[in-house]
Amino acid sequence: MRIALDAMGGDHGVRPNVVGALKAIACVPDLTVVLVGDSAQIESHLSTGAYPTDRIEIVASAGVVGMNEKPVEALRKKPDNSISRCWQLTATKKTDGLVSAGNTGAVVGAGLFARRFLKGVRRPGIGALMPTEKGHCVVLDVGANIFPKSSHLLQYGVMGSVLAKHRLGIAEPKIGLMNVGEEEGKGHELVQKTYALFRNSPFADRFVGNVEGRDVHKGLVDVIITDGFVGNVLLKHAEGVFEFIMQMVATDVVGVLSAEKALAAQAVQKLADKFHYSTAGGAPLLGVDGVCIICHGSSDERAIANALAVAAQDVRVQLNDRIVEELAKLPAFGDED
Amino acid sequence: MRIALDAMGGDHGVRPNVVGALKAIACVPDLTVVLVGDSAQIESHLSTGAYPTDRIEIVASAGVVGMNEKPVEALRKKPDNSISRCWQLTATKKTDGLVSAGNTGAVVGAGLFARRFLKGVRRPGIGALMPTEKGHCVVLDVGANIFPKSSHLLQYGVMGSVLAKHRLGIAEPKIGLMNVGEEEGKGHELVQKTYALFRNSPFADRFVGNVEGRDVHKGLVDVIITDGFVGNVLLKHAEGVFEFIMQMVATDVVGVLSAEKALAAQAVQKLADKFHYSTAGGAPLLGVDGVCIICHGSSDERAIANALAVAAQDVRVQLNDRIVEELAKLPAFGDED
Fold it and tell me: In this structure, what are the phi and psi dihedrals at residue A74, rounded to the nearest 5 degrees?
C-alpha cells in the first residue's frame, strides 16, 4: 500500500519525516511512502544512506503551510502546498492515505475542502487514543469540529467504535458521552440531544450514558464522544498535566533517593516513554475517503514511523469500509439533529 | 464573622462537617460556624466532646438535597433543605457566607434563585484553584454557567483576578482565555467575541490572549477563563489524571525499588497530599452577595475545615467589595455581549 507523507510538516522540518519514513518501510514490508514537499530538501536527507528506491518516492510540491498560519488563508494562498498535495494524491487514489505533522487546521481544512467524505458521513472528526487503567480509549472529536451538531456526535460514537474495534481489539466497544455530570438531563442542549439520539439508536446497548472528566483514564468506556473544543482542551491538558506531574515526581520523589536514585529515574523515564504521544502514532481524521493520520507538531522520527505503520494498518483492515457499514445502520437524521 | 455550614452536605454525611467545623474554630479565632441541618444528627456528633457553645450554633432545617438529585426539582420539593437555609441565613445577613459539600447544582441553583448578585454581576461563576509549576492559578467557570455569554466570561476574568490577588497574593494577575490554539481568531464564536471584549476592556494589559489545555499547569497565567462545561471537564480531568498517574508511579516506580521503597512511597504520599483537592479548601461561587464556598462531595473533615478558613479569609479581605469596585471599571455591555 501507498501512504503520502507531508515531508514539510511539523516543528522540526524535513529530517524527522524522511528518517521516519525510512524506519517505517523497514518495519512494514508492504508499505511504500510517497514523500511530498521540497525535493531538494527531501533528497538531501535521503542521500546520507542507501534506501530502496521502489518503496520511497518523491512528489514535489511548492509552499508550506506554517504551523501558526491561519489554515484557510494559507491553503488559498499556496494551492500547491505539501498538505493539499497529499490530499490530492489520496483523492485521486494514487495513495491510500496520508500522514502529516503539519498545521492540524490545514490538514483538516484541506480534507474538508476536498469534500470526499465517506458515504453517510456528515462531518469528519479526529479520534485520539488516550491511556487508561485498562489500555486505551478513543476520544473524539479532538479539534476538527468545535461546534458540532448532535448527529455529528452520534456518528463519532459509531466511527470511534470501529476504530476501537480494529485498532484496540475491543469486540464490543462501550461508548460514553462527555458531560458535567453522570445523570441523564445534565449539560447543555447539545449533550442532552446527543444523549437522546444515542438512546434511540441501534447502538443504544453500547451507550453507557454520560461520563465526566475524572473518568477518562479509568477505562470505564472505550469511546468518549465530545465536541472538538472540549476534546482539544482535554487532549492537550492530558499532555500538560502528565509533564507537570512527571517533573514533580522527578524532583520530589526521585530527588530524595540516594542508593536507588538511578533505578527510580530509569523507571520514571520508562513510564514517560510509555505514555508519550509519539507511541500512539498520531490521531486519525475519521470520516474521509482515504486514511488520514494527524501527528503532533513536535513529532520525532519515531512518532512519524509509528503514524505510518498505523496508517498502513488502518488501510489493511479496511477501516473505512467498516465505518461505512456501521453508519448505514443509523436511521435518517432530522433537519435539527 | 459567621459562616453557615451545610451540615448535611457531601458523600459522608454529617460527621466530617461537624468535626471540620470544630477544627476550623480552633484555628480561626474570630470564626463562628452555624451548623445547618438535622439537629439531632448534628448534636450526636457534637456530644462526643467539649466545644465552645458561643462559636458553634445550630440552625435546624428539614430535608436534604441528595447528591444525585435534580437540583431544581429537589429545591422546589424541599424548600427547607439545608442548602436553601444556608443561603437564607446569608441573604438576611445572619451569616457572612456559607460552605457546602452538597449537590453543587443545588448550591448554585439556590444562589441563583435568591438573585442576590453583587452590583453589576451578570452571572455568578465558580472559581477553582489548580496547581501550577509556580503555585496556583484560578480557573473559572468550572460548572455554574455551562453556556455563557462573552460578557459573563469578561466578568469572570475580572472576578478571577480579584480572587488571584487576595487569595494567591498576585498583585497584577495575568488573564488567559482557554481556546483550541494560541493565535487570535481561533475557536468558536463565543471565544472570538470574548477575546475582542478583553482586548477592548480596561483589563487589556493583563489579558495575555488564548491559552491551551497544555498550558494550565505551566503558570503562564494566573486566571484562566472558560465556559462552565469546559472548566468542569478540565477540573475533573485534572483530578482523574492525577490519580491515574500517581497510581502508576506507585506500581511502576516505587514498585521496582527495594532498599529505598519506603522512602519513595512516603515521598509519593507527600506529593499526593500536596495536590489533593482537600488542601485547596473548596471553590468559591463568585458574584453573589455573601461568600459561598463549594466543596468536593467527598470532602473529609480537613477539607471542610480548610473551606471554612478560606471563607473567613474572603470575608476578612472584603473580597466582594473588591469585586464590585473592579467590575465598575467595565463599560456597559451591548445586548449581544
Answer: -65, -40
Q: What is the ipTM of this complex?
A: 0.95
Residues of chain B with CATH 3.40.718.10: 1-121+287-317, 128-279
Distance (Å) from the alpha carbon of A203 to chain B's nearest alpha carbon: 25
**Residue A109 · residue A268 · CB < 8 Å:** no
Q: Are A253 and B249 in contact (CB under 8 A)?
A: yes
Q: Which residue of B has its CA nearest to A228?
A: B180
The CATH class for the domain spanning B128-279 reads: alpha beta
Nearest to A160 by CA among A326, A329, A19: A326
A 184-223 residues inside an 8 A Cβ radius of B: 185, 187-189, 212-218
Rounded to two decimals, the pTM is 0.96
Quick check: A246 and B247 CB within 8 A?
no
Say if the Cβ atoms of B217 and A241 lie within 8 Å: yes
Query: Looking at chain A, which residues constitute the CATH 3.40.718.10 domain(s)?
Result: 1-121+287-317, 125-279
For residue A50, give the amino acid letter: A
Task: State how beta strands A135-140 and B97-100 pair.
Answer: unpaired
Place of cell 504551523: A67
| Chain B interface includes A241 (CB < 8 A) | yes
Quick: pLDDT tens for B192-233.
Answer: 999 999 999 999 999 999 999 999 999 999 999 999 999 999
Subunit contact B180:A232, Cβ cutoff 8 A: yes
Measured between its terminal Cα atoms, the distance across chain B in Å is 37
Q: Answer whether A317 touches B (CB < 8 Å).
A: no
Domain made up of A125-279: CATH architecture: 3-Layer(aba) Sandwich (3.40)
d(CA A35, CA A57): 6
Which candidate in A145, A191, A244, A247 is best for mutational testing of the B interface (most B CBs within 10 A)? Answer: A244
Q: Where are the beta strands (DSSP E) in chain A?
A: 2-6, 32-37, 56-60, 97-100, 125-132, 135-140, 175-178, 207-211, 223-225, 283-286, 291-294
Return phi, psi of residue A321, to 5°. -65, -40
DSSP B19-80: HHHHHHHHH-TT-EEEEEE-HHHHHHHHTTS---TTTEEEEE------TTS-HHHHHHH-TT
* Residue A249 near chain B (CB below 8 Å): yes
The minimum CA-CA distance between A18 and chain B, rounded to whole Å, is: 27
- For the cut 80, the answer to whether the pLDDT of residue A209 exceeds it is yes
Give tens-digit pLDDT for A134-147.
999 999 999 999 99
CATH entry, A1-121+287-317, from 3.40.50.11890, 3.40.718.10, 3.40.50.150, 3.30.460.10: 3.40.718.10
A262 at B interface, C-beta within 8 A: no
Chain A's closest residue to B104, CA to CA, is: A181
C-alpha cell recorded at residue A244: 507537570
